[in-house]
Structures are given as structure tokens and as C-alpha cells.
Design brief:
The complex is a heterodimer of chains A (212) and B (307).
Chain A lengths: L2 E6 L8 H10 L9 E9 L2 E9 L8 H5 L5 E3 L5 E3 L9 H5 L6 E2 L6 E2 L5 H4 L6 H5 L5 E5 L6 H8 L4 E2 L11 E4 L3 H4 L26
Parallel strand pairs in A: 1-10
Antiparallel strand pairs in A: 1-8, 2-3, 4-5, 6-7, 9-10
Chain B lengths: L5 H4 L2 E4 L10 H26 L8 H22 L8 H4 L6 H25 L9 H29 L8 H24 L5 H28 L5 H7 L9 H25 L2 H24 L8
Classes of the chains: A alpha+beta (212), B mainly alpha (307).
Chain lengths: 212, 307
């Protein structure tokens, strides 16, 4: 079994239901996110549009976070999920430095690394990840990539040529796919970040141990 | 490169709460800086032993203590940078050997342990392990400690190479820079520690190492500065922080001048004037500048948004 995710960006409407469901399900502390929806505005008025891209851990086949973790706190489980053992983590932040997707953060409450686990605890009980359940338009598609009859495998087959991953050049082989994405959605260098143009300005980050 | 499309798309991120920018800050700079001096001193002491053993007298203990102190500063800042420092023992009991952090921690621990034994042997002045005289034990062990100093100084380059997200840190380059940082700071430190105990020819020798290390490190930085942007768009984006009016441009150039350019000039002047003041100033500047250079290179890739 190789679990994977696919987000159809044609469907996503940026409601952030997935983000909230993830926060609640995993008790993600304030100022940290396992799953975020990025908004990018494209074009010049009046010809503008807003794009939405849910971003979470890619559960890479060749995961840099797993490789750099000095104590195997980040590890693979049989279904392909890159899981984290918070009791073992020493908080060196090596994984934060290694993840090309910025998907790992230091939990300000436990002072350990944390990230999306595809809701491994729910999957163990044969439940879908919280974000999948919450999505009102079924933009999040989750399943076994090795099973050709699974929804995700069928979706990938149907949309061949339009399936993308983030930063393929990193050689991480992500198990998280996007349909309908483009550079603006998936490449952080394809959009500007201007001070004062963010919908949420002046975010207060909870203090972390160590020095930053 | 994709950022060239910005003018056409006018794409602006309007909502994305990215991670706090700098995760590895000045604690890690201190870590790398202190380790460079600690291992560099061992390299220099070994070279001195091979080149002019009679000048080792009076320097064995003092140089090894200086190295030991710097290695402990390195370990202290490594520990302090952990968010769960009391779980440090996990690295020895749950080691993950694909991680350069694990391998480095093990090697650094053995290295510091051997240094402690060498210092203890010299201070106690008694027959010690393998019934050798302290000096014989010291000199014999120094060979193995020097061998160990190579991976100890290089492993941080391994960590940087494993940091897949940070395109700027490439393994062959970082490995060269780590060794050069050790030879630069080690030669500078032994010049200062050795003082009048070193003969003129030995001072010349260490001055040459200092000057050549500065030159080679400077060439590598300039190569990356000028050509790095031509092949990888992430590197190009990162180097903007040290170019023009970039956030770290001033600090970058202060570092290059203090660590490399001024010491090179002072070494050149020393070789003609034989002024010890110039040599000592070059050594102090190289050690101080190395911290700045390391810090800039550590921080700038972390400023780039990953999402």
C-alpha cells in the first residue's frame, strides 16, 4: 500500500475548511499549521483572479526529513506515510531545514517537530483524513496509489498530462499531486510577496525554544 | 527562470502564513565557528609536529586546551540550539545513521574524549595508557585525532548537503569551505597562541596557510557570488540577499573583507616587513571575520519562502 493525496485545483475554492478541520482534528497550536491554503492573486485589475493551493506534507518517497532526522523520529510506516514520533524528537530542526516544501514546523507547545501525517491515527481506524471529510467540493482525493481501482489512481489516469507535483527537481518523489496547477500555484518563486499586501498581516508567532 | 514571468502574471501572494524565517540562527553560527577553530588547531599542531617537533614544547598542552575549549563551546551551542536539549541522549541510543547530524555527534564526542585524554596525560605527567610517556602518548594520539578532525570538521557540510530545501548549500563547495575555515582559523589561532614560542620560519609557514586559505575561500565565495545564479533559480533568488541593496549585502562584504581580503593583504605586508603586529592583526581579523562570513551564508537560504 502506498497512500497518496491529490488536490484538484479546478475545484478548490479556498474555503479553508480543510485547514480548520486539520487544526481541530490534530489540535494544531496557534500560529502553526499542518495544512495551509495559499492564496495568490494573478493579473492586473480588472482582469484578475485568485488562485488557491492547499499545501501540506508531500509524504515523499525519498523524504529529506526522514534522511536527516538524527533519531528516526521521522520514519516511514508500511502504508507509505512519513510519520513522526514526537516523544523521540530532539528538536534539532534538521527536518525543517531539509523539507523543500516548508511543511514541517516546531510545535511551540511540545518543542518538537510536527507536520501533516495524513491523519495516520484516523487511517488506522479506517477513517479518511479530516481534511478530506471537510472538503465541500471533494477537491481532496486520498487513497492507495498502488491500487489501480482507487479513486486517486483513477483520477491520475483520467488527468494524465495535467498532474503535477511541487518541486520535482528536488528528486523527492512526492506522493502528493495537484491537478490543474501551474507555476503560480506550485512554484514559490513565481509570485511576489509584498509587505502589507497579505490578508493576514502582523501574525503573532508563539515563542519557540532555542534561538532564531 | 520563472520569476521572469512575474511581470506578465503580476502574481502576488495575498495569503500564506509561512514558517518563521530563520530557524538556524547565530547559535549554529557559533557552533560552526568554534568547531572550525577547535579542529583547525589540531590540524596545525599536527603540521607543527611533522615540520618542527622541537617547537612543540610548551604548545602541546596549551593548544590542545584551546582546541578542547572551542570544541566544548561548539557542543554547548549545539545543545542550546536543540528545542529538546534534555533528549540529546536519543542521538546515542536511537541513532539514525543516514543523518549527518548523528554521525557528526558521534565523531565529535569521540574527538573531544580523545582530546581530554591527551590533555589529562600532559597535565598529570605520568605514564599513562599503554605505558607510554605522556609526550609520546600525546604525539601518537595526535595522528589519530587529526584524522578524526577531518570528518568532524566536514560533517556540518554533510548536514547542509542533506538540507534539500536550501539550494545554496552544495556539498563539494561546503566541504571545501569547511576545511578552509578550519585551516584559516586554526592557523590564525596557533599564530596568536604560539607567539614568541614559534620561530620566524614557522610563523611564515602558518602565515602562508592563513593567506592561502583566505585566498581559496574567497575565490569559492566569489565564484558562487558571480556564477551561482546562472544555473539555479533558487540560488539566484537567495543571492539577491547579498547583492545590491539586499538585506545581508553589507554584512556579506564586511565578512569578505574582514575574513579574507584584509588578512591576505596583511600577510603580504608581513612577509615583506616581518612585522608581528601585522601578522597578529591578520589572525584576529580572520577569526572574527569567519564568524560573519559563516553567519551570512547560514542565514540567507532560510529567508527564501518555500511555499
Amino acid at each position: 500500500m502506498q497512500l497518496g493525496f491529490l488536490v484538484d485545483l479546478h475545484l478548490c475554492m479556498g474555503c479553508k475548511g480543510c485547514e480548520i478541520a486539520c487544526k481541530v482534528e490534530n489540535e494544531v497550536p496557534l500560529s502553526t499549521w499542518r495544512l495551509r491554503v495559499k492564496y495568490v492573486d494573478v493579473g492586473t485589475y480588472p482582469e484578475t483572479k485568485r488562485t488557491f493551493t492547499p499545501l501540506r506534507c508531500n509524504h515523499c518517497e525519498n523524504a529529506p526529513c526522514e534522511r536527516i532526522c538524527p533519531v528516526s523520529a521521522l520514519h516511514y510506516i508500511e502504508n507509505g506515510i512519513v510519520n513522526i514520533d514526537k516523544e523521540r524528537c530532539i528538536g534539532c530542526a534538521g527536518c525543517v531545514m531539509a523539507c523543500p516544501y516548508g511543511a514541517i514546523y516546531i510545535d511551540p507547545e511540545t518543542q518538537t517537530a510536527d507536520k501533516c501525517t495524513y491523519c495516520a491515527h484516523r487511517i488506522a481506524s479506517s477513517l479518511m483524513p479530516a481534511c478530506v471529510v471537510a472538503c465541500p467540493v471533494e477537491a481532496n482525493i486520498f487513497g492507495d496509489l498502488e491500487d489501480p481501482t482507487s479513486n486517486i489512481s483513477k483520477y491520475i489516469q483520467q488527468h494524465q498530462g495535467d498532474v503535477m507535483v511541487r518541486k520535482p527537481e528536488k528528486g523527492t518523489n512526492p506522493h502528493h499531486f495537484y491537478v490543474g496547477g501551474g507555476q503560480v500555484h506550485l512554484n514559490p518563486l513565481a509570485s511576489k510577496r509584498e509587505e502589507g499586501y497579505n490578508l493576514f498581516n502582523n501574525i503573532t508567532h508563539l515563542p519557540l525554544g532555542g534561538h532564531h | 527562470m520563472v520569476h521572469e514571468t512575474l511581470a506578465a502574471t503580476n502574481a502576488v501572494v495575498t495569503l500564506d502564513v509561512a514558517l518563521p524565517e530563520v530557524f538556524w540562527g547565530w547559535y549554529v553560527t557559533m557552533n560552526m565557528w568554534a568547531k572550525s577553530i577547535g579542529t583547525g588547531l589540531v590540524f596545525m599542531l599536527f603540521l607543527l609536529l611533522r615540520r618542527n617537533p622541537e617547537e612543540m614544547k610548551g604548545l602541546r598542552t596549551s593548544v590542545m586546551i584551546a582546541s578542547f575549549i572551542m570544541m566544548n563551546i561548539f557542543l554547548l551551542f549545539t545543545l542550546a540550539d536543540l528545542h529538546q536539549p534534555f533528549r540529546m541522549w536519543h542521538i546515542f541510543f536511537y541513532p539514525h545513521l543516514t543523518s549527518a547530524i548523528t554521525v557528526g555527534a558521534w565523531m565529535a564526542t569521540i574527538f573531544v574524549g580523545l582530546e581530554f585524554l591527551m590533555i589529562a596525560a600532559m597535565i598529570r605527567k605520568e605514564k599513562c595508557l599503554l605505558t607510554k610517556e605522556p609526550v609520546a602518548f600525546f604525539d601518537k594520539t595526535l595522528f589519530w585525532v587529526t584524522l578524526l578532525a577531518i570528518p568532524v570538521t566536514l560533517y556540518t557540510a554533510g548536514i547542509m548537503a542533506e538540507a534539500t530545501a536550501r539550494e545554496l548549500w552544495q556539498m563539494p563547495t561546503e566541504a571545501a569551505q569547511m576545511i578552509l575555515a578550519a585551516t584559516l582559523s586554526g592557523s590564525a589561532a596557533i599564530i596568536l597562541l604560539g607567539g614568541n614560542k614559534l620561530s620566524e620560519s614557522t610563523k611564515n609557514f602558518f602565515a602562508s596557510i592563513l593567506g592561502l586559505s583566505a585566498l581559496m575561500a574567497f575565490i569559492i565565495y566569489m565564484s558562487e557570488y558571480i556564477f551561482g545564479a546562472m544555473k539555479a533559480e533558487e540560488v539566484a533568488a537567495i543571492l539577491h540577499y547579498v547583492k545590491g541593496d539586499g538585506e545581508y549585502a553589507t554584512m556579506f562584504w564586511i565578512g569578505q573583507w574582514v575574513a579574507y581580503i584584509l588578512p591576505m593583504l596583511l600577510i603580504a605586508l608581513y612577509r615583506t616587513s616581518k612585522s608581528n603586529a601585522m601578522l597578529n592583526l591578520a589572525a584576529i581579523l580572520a577569526i572574527a571575520g569567519l564568524w560573519i562570513v559563516k553567519h551570512v551564508w547560514l542565514v540567507i537560504p532560510q529567508l527564501l519562502p518555500l511555499s
